[in-house]
Write a structure and sequence with these properties.
Length: 252
């Protein structure tokens, strides 16, 4: 009895699995390895916000994510988002009253922390996030720009948008954040909004509240770009949101 049940389970499992299995390339040098396929699916689930609240990259995907972030795919993915955002922005009719704003998140949206995550003492994917260490890195103000976002920023300024940077960095980091942005080419902004040093709300509450303040001050949020879904959901999200990739961490 136990044995036939085992057979039945195997049979069901096989029949369910086979249609998918047929779509998979046969093993061999040209075929995808099973682990690669899982990691792609994992990344897609992350980017679509089907996977929420994850605390770390699955161990078998740490290598995959590292290669993705350092390779040209990540850069091209960012470039495409920026290009689409520009197409959208070009089509808007600005009133010229200086109230049309574009909201940019900072980390992994306009500035990249890849040099930090690549450090030996950070051990990307293996040691849990350490806010003390991360904020020390932020205070160094040496994060490079994400090229696609910098180009979009320049195009938006040219089109007449006002830019607002809205970051989860704490206010005590205002000076280095400002210095870092300027050093890599984000030379002007309407507002640079940081999180109060003692603010306790979550990311969605914080960002929604700040966007609400902007709208109450008469600004129209025409576009809103971030690497976390918590940058883009909640209230006062703006006319259109743009998600740049980030399979490195999740902020809820
Ligand atoms: C912008 O204004 C032009 C000229 O009035 C009009 O043809 C166009 O449809 C408007 N575009 C949008 C997106 O409203
Ligand atoms: C976080 O980093 C700081 C600074 O490097 C270090 O002193 C501290 O021990 C770390 N905390 C944890 C929990 O690893
Ligand atoms: Mg971010």
């Amino acid at each position: 009895m136990g044995f036939s049940l085992f057979i039945l389970i195997v049979t069901i499992a096989t029949s369910v699995a086979s249609p998918i299995h047929l779509l998979m390339p046969h093993s061999g040098s040209a075929g995808l390895k099973h682990a690669d396929l899982n990691c792609l699916s994992w990344r897609l689930a992350v980017e679509t916000d089907n996977l929420k609240g994850w605390s770390h990259i699955p161990e078998s995907c740490v290598d995959y994510v590292g290669h993705y972030m350092l390779g040209k795919q990540y850069r091209e993915d960012c470039d495409l988002v920026a290009a689409e955002a520009y197409e959208y922005a070009k089509g808007l009719n600005l009133t010229g009253d200086g109230k049309d704003v574009w909201v940019f998140d900072i980390d992994e949206t306009t500035l990249s922390n890849i040099p930090y995550y690549a450090r030996d003492d950070v051990a990307f994917g293996f040691i849990p996030y350490n806010s003390t260490k991360f904020n020390q890195w932020v205070a160094e103000a040496t994060a490079p720009a994400i090229p696609g976002s910098l180009k979009l920023y320049e195009q938006l300024i040219e089109l007449g948008f006002k830019v607002v940077f809205l970051t989860g960095s704490r206010e005590y980091l205002t000076e280095p954040r400002s210095r870092n942005l300027k050093a890599v080419g984000y030379t002007q902004w309407e507002k640079l909004i940081l999180k109060g040093d003692n603010y306790q709300g979550n990311a969605v509450e914080y960002k929604s509240g700040k966007r609400k303040e902007l709208e109450e001050a008469g600004y129209r949020i025409r576009g809103n770009m971030g690497d976390q879904w918590s940058d883009l959901i909640g209230t006062n999200t703006g006319d259109r949101t743009f998600k740049v990739p980030d399979p490195m961490y999740y902020i809820g």
